[in-house]
Amino acid sequence: MKALVYTQPNEVQLLDRPEPTMVPGDVVLRIDAVGICGSDMHAYHGHDPRRKPGLVLGHEFSGTVVSSMHPLWQEGMRATGNPLIVCGHCEYCVQGRDNLCAHRTMVGMTRPGAFAQQMGIPAGCLIPLPDSLGSVEAALTEPGATALHAINLSMKSLVRPLPECRVLVLGGGAIGMLAALLLRHYGVDRLAVAEVNPLRRTSIEQHARCATFDPIAQGPEENAFDYVIDAVGSARTRQSALAAVKPGGVVMHIGLQDWASEIDMRKLTLAEITLLGTYTYSTADLRATVAALARGVFGDLSWVERRPLADGARAFDDLHHGRVAAAKLVLEPQH
Q1: Dihedral, CA atoms, 186, 187, 191, 197, nearest 10 degrees?
Q2: Which site from 173, 284, 285, 316 is most exposed, i.e. has the minimal number of CB atoms within 10 Å?
Q3: Is 251 helix (H, G, I), strand (E, B) or coil?
Q4: How confident is the model at residue 260 (pLDDT cuts 50, 70, 90)?
Q5: What is the CATH number of domain 2-140+304-332?
Q6: Contact 224, 166 (CB under 8 A)
Q7: What residues form DSSP beta bridges with 105?
Q8: Residue limits of CATH 3.90.180.10 in the chain
Q9: Are 170 and 237 in contact (CB under 8 A)?
Q10: Is CATH 3.20.20.10 the classification given to domain 144-277?
Q11: For residue 32, how many C-alpha atoms fall within 13 Å in the half-sphere facing its CB?
Q12: Gap between the Cα atoms of 113 and 100, Å rounded
């Protein structure tokens, strides 16, 4: 089969790879659509020591079962899935917080991912898809669930209901765009998105119907926002988030562009800011996101760009150089 393989920093190649093998409880999916995630780009740049050259990346997928060693999954069934492979018995799994599983592994990190014509995965990770949901749209389940999990977690800490809040999203990539769309669905009218790419700013304004600005040319207003989402996670955006949030407000940190940096601990303390971190999603979040996508909660998703897997190397290079307007680029291995 063909697979897009991370071969060295700033390089992926379309290569031949053996078809997946199975152990009891596994299925093999024909990958119908797979999104390029910011963490895939992080690996592509050589900045993730967990993802080493020779690995097939990709964890935002939808597909069709082609073979199964599990009684509940038969050939022809369509699915997306949780790329986190969890133990099911640690304290976090039994609490329903399987994203924090102490023994988790992950497709596209510790085992071959979905930038391929086929991928093996434990059947317990799979989530069925309704017939009404297309494969490309279903591939947005994983980033959509990341946004949903983060916003739902934040709402527990906000002093006032979310629709009353003035909200800032830092970063207009997939997580930022999906967060903006979900915030609008939740009733947020006072919303701004900071994004450096002018092509993406135009797309966000069109589809999320909110204000945007270039944070390099114009920093966010200080002490002005009840709720700030950092969907980038750089040293600069962390500083901007703490500067922009109002006293008593909430900062939700999602992105991990930089692994460590200083933040304004004095303001965090004296202004009684709530700083939250979030990691991925639970399986319940993924199921909720499939249902939300099927209901059109995230809009028509016409901003998503589609390309064949054979164009994967160019797609990574275009993303690297900021030549893509779309907040999400999805590859289709069967085209």
Answers
A1: 50
A2: 284
A3: strand
A4: confident
A5: 3.90.180.10
A6: yes
A7: 85
A8: 2-140+304-332
A9: yes
A10: no
A11: 20
A12: 20
What single DSSP character describes residue 291? H
In what side-by-side order are the strands of the sheet with 11-16? 11-16, 2-8, 55-56
| Residue 293 near residue 140 (C-beta atoms within 8 A) | yes
Environment class of 168 (CB within 10 Å of its CB; exposed 0-12, middle 13-18, buried 19+)? buried
Where are any strands of DSSP class E within the chain?
2-8, 11-16, 26-35, 55-56, 60-68, 78-81, 84-85, 105-106, 118-122, 126-128, 167-170, 191-194, 211-213, 225-230, 245-253, 274-277, 305-308, 329-332
Residue located via tokens 């690996």:
43
- Find, among 195, 200, 266, the residue nearest to 237 by Cα: 195
Band of residue 261 on the pLDDT scale cut at 50, 70, 90: confident
pTM over 0.85: yes
Closest listed residue to residue 298, CA positions, set 63, 107, 134: 134
For 190-225, how does the pLDDT look when each residue is reduced to its tens digit (9 = 90+)? 999 999 999 999 999 999 999 999 999 998 999 999
Residue type, 258: D
Amino acid in position 162:
L
Helix (H, G, I), strand (E, B) or coil at 207: helix
Which amino acid is located at 24 in the chain? P
307 DSSP β-pair partners:
331
